[in-house]
Amino acid sequence: MSEENQTLAQRREKAASLAELGVNLYSNGFKPANTTRELLPKGDSLAPQEAEPGGAGYSIAGRIMAMRKFGKAAFCTLADTGGQLQIYVKKDILGDEVFETFKKWDIGDIVGVEGTLFKTKVGELSLQAHRITMISKSLRPLPDKWHGLTDVETRYRQRYVDLIVTPETRETFRKRVDIIRLVREYLIGKDFMEVETPMMQPIPGGATAKPFKTYHNALDMELYLRIAPELYLKRLLVGGFERVFEINRNFRNEGLSTRHNPEFTMLEFYQAYATYEDMITLTEKMISSICHTVNGTMKITYQGTEVDLTPPWTTLTMDEALVEIAGIDREILVDDEKLMALVKAKGIQLEEQAGPGKAKTELFELLVEDKLINPTFITSYPTEVSPLARKNDLDPSVTDRFELFITGRELANGFSELNDPIDQLARFEKQIAERGEDDEIHPELDADYIRALEYGMPSAAGEGIGIDRLVMLLTDAPSIRDVILFPHLKPEAKLQQEREE
């Protein structure tokens, strides 16, 4: 028998013996009146070995994280959502029978405690137990408290254990909740209305990515988990809602990496009678203010590199970035033949139909992107790679579009919206023709979106921000899996099979 199975067997035997003694291993009647967050400040005014005046009674519930047992007394550390508090258990207070039963309890058990507050002689606030109740018996031991849950794969797969034993993980997800709340409050404060759009769509649109496909029996039709909510949110602009946003999940049936999960959270927002410059201003103010609120500073460290989010942020056109950062001669950028030769020399493989706009974008991704550490807006994206963005009035080869990069990663993508239905139809048709037949998905024109534009969409600008990547930045998380509670992983059985092969 393995060590793990032996430990599980011992725990099950202990649970059975407690049940025989009349202990309800999974009781449902204890209702704590207090939390550790509420009780801990009460110790500030107490001296060592002093009890709280008046002997007020309190009750808390939580998980036993540590235990020291003596002959007639025991100390244990109880953790709830707000923190940890030491519990002092004495035989002469609980009684012989209850105390002897308590000594058979384990680290990991969830218990309820009623008692009074005092400070030990070393000055630690403690709750002296007058009554203690088993709420849920733990049949599996927690990881060693000194080493924690060190295996990264196990941390992701058994997030519930990771949250129990790793304070940093709990703090990351508390910050995630705060960041999303602050985003929501900021936009609502700017008169944006939060909406919900379909998760299952008849046509996968709003971005270029491979979707997940399903089938609806009653409607007798294929549906796709959305890759983006963009086209539905812009339909709302047509309908007269002038400022809308959505924070929700997108799904893309593509690879896994430290930056990509097939299911991820996006913020998308759209504003009528605005331009991409307005989106840049809004983004800079929103993210910098959220950073200051969450971390108390504009200067943060991400994976050992200092990042300064203090406004104003740098803005460069794509061509300027290729010249100033990649060191490409400006003459090459305006000569299609020289540009294509450079791309080939850099080992970049382009599709047969790709033009100079695609070539510039590929060069940018290869030579510039990872060098953009402090916040940088890159503007003037080629029209060729921006099928939903408005062409620039002075130079129709580029669009009024930007992407925001921090720590070498794209964090946001926004642009002045294309609201000309004739231009949009032509770009859709060109995109479909270039994409060609797909083994899994037949490219399809979103005729209803074109119909919506034909009713008239106001001039507008919109943007998408990757919430997971924003949380990664503000919590110093190296992988997107560190900021998603339950990231997608290969099944354990499949991993085991691969190891054996």
List keywords for this structure.
single chain, 501 residues, OB fold (Dihydrolipoamide Acetyltransferase, E2P), BirA Bifunctional Protein, domain 2, 18 strands
Describe this structure in words.
With 501 residues, the chain is an alpha+beta fold. Helices cover 35% and strands 24% of the residues. The chain has helices at residues 3-20, 36-39, 91-94, 96-102, 152-157, 159-165, 167-189, 230-238, 276-295, 318-324, 330-333, 336-345, 356-367, 421-435, 447-455, 467-475, 492-500, and strands spanning 58-69, 73-80, 83-90, 110-119, 125-136, 193-194, 200-201, 213-216, 221-225, 243-251, 263-272, 299-302, 305-308, 314-317, 376-379, 401-406, 409-416, 460-466. The model has no long low-confidence stretch (mean pLDDT 93). The longest helix is centred in the middle third of the chain and has 23 residues, at 167-189. It has two domains: 3-142, Nucleic acid-binding proteins (OB fold (Dihydrolipoamide Acetyltransferase, E2P)), CATH 2.40.50; 164-199 and 227-325 and 368-500, 2-Layer Sandwich (BirA Bifunctional Protein, domain 2). Helix 7 (167-189) packs across helix 9 and helix 12 (336-345) packs across helix 13. The radius of gyration is 29 Å and the shape is elongated.
